[in-house]
Structure formats: C-alpha cells, structure tokens
Specification:
heterodimer, A: about 170 residues, alpha/beta, Hypothetical Protein Ychn, Chain: A, about 15% strand, B: about 80 residues, alpha+beta, Translation Initiation Factor IF3, 4-stranded mixed β-sheet, 2 helices, about 25% helix
C-alpha cells in the first residue's frame, strides 16, 4: 500500500442536503483504499457536533424536488411546487421538509449522515476542524465528536498539495 | 458458466450508494488472498461502481451477471493476493 491515492475535501456547508456529499465521497474513497482527510470550516463545522442537527431549507434551494415519501406511487411521483413566499413563512416548514428528506433517503436505502460519518471514522478518514472558524463561531472541541484534529488552512494545504483529488464542498 | 466456489456471501439488496461498496471493502479485508466473495445488489449504479471499485483496489471481479426480471445484480469478487 505504498502508493495509496489521496483525497482532500473541504466541507463548508452545514445543511442536511450538503452534509451528504463529503461523507459519501470520503467513506467511498476509503473503501477504494484511498487516504482521506476532510477539512471542516464555516458551517461545515456543525457536521462535527456530537449530534448532527442539520436541516434542509427548501426556500433557498429553488430546484429542490418536493416529493412525498409515502402514499400511492403516483402521489410519490408528483413534484409539489410551493412558492418561496409560502415556504419561508409557514412555521415548521423546514422541520417538515427535513423529516421528509430523511424519510425519503431511508426508504431508498441510503445511510444516514451519522452512519456515514461513523463509517468515515472507522475507516480512518481524518476529520480536521478549522481552528479559526471554531473561534469565530464559538465552538470548542468539547462540542465535537472525539478523535478529530484541529488545524488551519496550512494543515489542509499541506495534505492537499500531495493529494490526487481535492474538492471544495 | 462454471460453478464458482464461493467463500463468503454479502447481501446488499435494497442498499443505495455508497453502502454496497463500503460493505464489500469491509468484508473483503477479512478474506484471505484468492478467496471469493459473492455480492447481491439491487442498485443499478452498482455495475459501474463495482467495476470502478475493482480497478481502484485491484480485487478482480471474476464474474458478474444481471437478472433484469427481479432487478438484481450479482458480483463474484476475488480477494487479490498480496
């Protein structure tokens, strides 16, 4: 395994929809026998919290298909268009959309974000939290899961410089 | 088609990307070089994914097949000999 390929990711977003890509790519790369490090910065830091509370906000994702995960098949296939002015003002809409997305993912046999994160940790993916944004947003390592590394841009770039794949998410 | 001697079976039916590949890597790591793992999947992306996984890890797919009537895919992966 002398020449394992390397992948360097930056996870900068903290909503449920954007929580998936870094953990999916990292866990898969580990299964492809690659060495992986993820640098969590800005809102991505919240994905390191002991309990991930990420939600999805449909009103900021105009292209997001709004579908129901239950009911007869023709109902599930319907795309329910809701104007932003409604979505942004119905109390609890984000929570409802989050529950629907989680339910749809579960029904399709997709792992939860927490499961994917655990797989990453088990398979040796290094999770680096950005010290500067931790300071800005008032996070301490006690807020985060155990086993993470704390570092700055230079820590990430040192690894990314020798990586075969580098992605900003 | 020759009968393949299977050493372990992994059922990934109903699972979506990336779980089948992740579970396969976990199980293949427990096998000895030369042993065969049989994997069943239902994710249509798994044909491309398993071939990509095989290329990247060097564990050859000795046989693969598809049963369109039930939407199932079968892979026989051999653990590479180090």
């Amino acid at each position: 395994m002398a020449d394992r390929k390397k992948m360097a990711l930056i996870a900068s977003k903290g909503t449920l929809d954007w929580a998936y890509p870094p953990f999916i790519l990292a866990s898969t790369a580990a299964a492809l026998d690659m060495e992986v490090k993820i640098f969590f910065t800005f809102y991505g830091l919240t994905l390191l919290k002991k309990k991930i509370t990420a939600k999805v906000a449909p009103q900021t994702n105009p292209a997001m298909p709004m579908k129901l995960p239950f009911g007869p098949e023709f109902v599930q296939g319907l795309n329910i268009p809701l104007p932003n002015v409604l979505m942004g003002n119905i109390p609890g809409f984000e929570t409802a959309a989050t529950i629907l997305m989680k339910e749809t993912f579960k029904k399709k046999g997709v792992a939860t974000v927490e499961e994917l994160r655990s797989i990453c940790i088990e398979s040796g993916v290094e999770l680096i939290s950005c010290q500067m944004t931790m300071d800005v947003f008032g996070f301490s390592t006690n807020d985060f899961i155990e086993g993470i590394t704390v570092g700055g841009a230079a820590t990430f770039l040192d690894f990314a410089a020798g990586a075969d794949i580098q992605l900003f998410i | 088609m020759n009968e393949i001697q299977v050493d372990q079976v992994l059922d990934c039916r109903g699972l979506s990307c990336p779980l089948p590949v992740i579970k396969t890597f976990k199980v293949i790591n427990e096998l000895r070089g030369g042993e065969i793992l049989k994997i069943m999947t239902t994710d249509p992306g798994s044909i491309n994914d398993f071939n990509a996984w095989s290329r990247q890890t060097g564990n050859p797919i000795v046989q693969q097949s598809e049963d369109p009537s039930i939407g199932e895919f079968l892979f026989f992966v051999q653990k590479k000999v180090n």
